Amino acid sequence: MLVLATAIADLLHLGRRDLFAWANLAALAAGIALAFLVPVSKNRVSASCLLVSLGASGVPLLVGGQPPPALHRALPAPGGGAGGIPCGRARTLRVSL
Predict the structure, then answer these.
(1) How far is 19 from 86, CA to CA, in rounded Å?
(2) Apex 11 CA angle, 7 and 15, nearest 5
(3) Quick one: which of 6, 9, 22, 29 is 20 to 30 A from 65 by CA?
(4) pLDDT tens digit string along 25-59?
(5) Closest among 65, 61, 72, 79 to 94, alpha carbons compared
(6) Distance CA 22, CA 72 (A)
(7) pTM of model > 0.90
């Protein structure tokens, strides 16, 4: 699932929103189709559960777009605190997700 999610997310990162939408729709449709053969179960990590989760996770990105820059994760700069944990007003490195 992680490899498929990365491949589909790369489509959005490259600006191919149309292909991103089709890939999410295909994953969601395949998951729903497989649900009739293999029950959706996160405990057994079924293929239908993975594909439904993968397809449904792209819907918020299609509806709302990419998150605003204010929500980007701030990571501590190298050497910015004890054990990599920022102390006080340590410098941060901005990383977009």
Answers:
(1) 40
(2) 160
(3) 29
(4) 999 999 999 888 887 777 777 888 889 899 998 88
(5) 72
(6) 26
(7) no
